[in-house]
Amino acid sequence: MKITAGNPLERGKDIAITNSKEYITKLLQEEFNGYVCIMIKGIHGLQEGVILIHNGKIVAASYDYFYYMRQYTAEPALERTLNAMMAKTGVLDTFSLSSYQVQLVLTLNEEAGLKKPVDAGSLKMPEKYSEEYEKALIQKREEQKKGEIAKKLGLGEFLTGMTKEDLLKIASEEDDQAKRMIK
């Protein structure tokens, strides 16, 4: 997310000893203007989430998986950021902004804007941290690697949507055809 520096309120706050839900709820109740960054170490490298708060409402979010070079914005980013805040290790940084600066950040990051702002009453934090978001990325990356190899071998279109059973059936049919040709 393209974001202005802001005034630091908290730097390097250890999330292991922080009740993240209470922390975020308090910011929202105080009608905070600014942003909160969370940095954690996932299965493969660092991840960073940013939530932008305007007049006590979360209005935008972004989430980066640096190892995978993948960024999420808006609602998917908010889910991942709130999940990251429940991790056992990580740091939280909070910066205040003026209302004008928040509007500028929103303008520069339209894709990160939430469809519906989240206030203290509608904030839904997970009970505990889940690695499922990253595991889904790992699986997707493995599937992409297989597809890239198939493309390099000229099999890209042939393998699209093929299951293991489909491939075995085709191989069996080709084997039967070859046997008939030999006879």
Radius of gyration: 23 Å
Percent helix, as a range, is: 40-55%
- Any idea what the shape is? elongated
Q: How many helices?
A: 6
Distance between the termini: 67 Å
Structural class: alpha+beta
Strand content: 25-35%
Q: Total number of β-strand segments?
A: 7
* Low-confidence parts: none
List the helices and strands and how they pair.
Layout: E1 7-14, H1 20-29, E2 34-42, E3 45-54, E4 57-65, E5 70-73, H2 74-84, E6 91-96, H3 99-108, E7 113-118, H4 132-152, H5 156-159, H6 164-182
Description:
Strands 1, 2, 3, 4, 5, 6 and 7 form a seven-stranded antiparallel sheet that branches. The chain contains six helices and seven strands; from the N terminus they run E-H-E-E-E-E-H-E-H-E-H-H-H. The mean pLDDT is 86. The longest helix is centred in the last third of the chain and has 21 residues, at 132-152. The protein has 183 residues and is an alpha+beta fold. It has helices at residues 20-29, 74-84, 99-108, 132-152, 156-159, 164-182; strands at residues 7-14, 34-42, 45-54, 57-65, 70-73, 91-96, 113-118.
